[in-house]
Model the fold of this input.
Amino acid sequence: MTLLILMLACGRNRTAPQDCDPELGLAQSEQPSFDEEVRLRLELSRCTDDTCFDARAWREDPSTGEVTPGPALDLDLAWGSLGELQHDGSVSTWRVTPPHNGELAVTVRDDTRGLSLRRTALVFDTVAESWDQPLAVEGLVNTCGWEDGAALTPDGAFLFVHYLPVSIDCLVRPGRRFCRTAVGPVSAPERPDMPGAERVDESGRIHHGCPTTGLDPMPVPVPPNSLYVFARQDDGSYAEPAVLQFEGLDGCVAPWGPTFLPDEGSSATGTLVVSVDDPYDDPPSIPEWAPLTLGQTQTLATWEKEAGNASRTSSLLESVGLQVPGGQAGNPHLSADRSQLWFDDEADTDTIYVTALDSDLQATGQPQRLPSEVFSGHESQPYFDGERLYFRQDVTLMVAEYLGGDFDQASAWGTPTPVIAVEDRGEAGSMAGAGEPTIAEIDGAAVLSFVYVIRREDGSLDLNLGQVAARD
Done:
């Protein structure tokens, strides 16, 4: 039997790390951002180098979207240097120069109307020239818990998030305090219908066991976890969370590493591919797929206890029939034409593979390993758009151009280069990595979604979601 923890290794917050903001990225403050006559707007544009960005703020008519003339607005920074105000009668502009990487809250104010609007700029040491200023995802996505496994649908209408209400340190350093108490929500509005929420008591303390399966208590940490999908709102934020769950496992196991391709002419109906860690199967992690319509809570599979073990009794999911070289395939990515499945081997060192699929989404032949002459063997989380492969290499988000030919040949690839890179200062507030790339086209522009890692005051690592639009 495979231990449940193998998968895990891949109300409001009650006991958050002291510098974790429960409202990070919600694009709101204590004041509203609009009234009947005026709506505040705030745009952050990265400088040509990586050390500064311009903040542009203005008022607009809520009914027409037209810019409204008026006096200069005010801008507040959580930290960093704020340049001289430039105002043309309608738009207020400032140059912002951060001294180091981190999350930088930027708030514009119209004190005469009692309005304010906040954005959280994500400051990295390196951002590729083709991308603008990264921002924290707004809405109900980011919390003080562990947001991971991010994936945008191709039109950006939906965003997948794999969630646990603890720091990643709970599983990296399970003997420490990070496993004892939930620091993220396990209920509405952020995480409704959370599987395993009943294992978190009123004080936030977590019971590490899976009672329905008979594995209770567990000898290793098993915080509740699940896969959520959020819908994009008119203001660009993500809300309306709906859980994609496994029943009968008490939130000890969840689908992860999602990829979704909508059917032609649809945003919500299409094909979902996830990695599934069945605790009673071997190999432990295999990609499976299902036809699905997003936007509602759904059960992907159900386990029931029989003869001492919990077995899968019903499922919407079907295996892709993949022969995994290392026995554990993670982070599957389905190509746009559904002819290829990209994945990483997580059983040993991270290595990226690609396998051909037939029209029934069944793997054909042996997977191709990407060439070691180009890829070091520390790569994971692939996203292939037909021209470029985006992936995580150690703690850096990278890209390599596809030049044509067989994927396992060095001649098929250009030299990988950083998209987002950090210099971890090893102190609270420092960025510590980025990964989990997917790209969508939103309002005519390419938008890169990713997971970033930041250090908190209590010594933990916090994973959240960010996005960055391509430059014009």
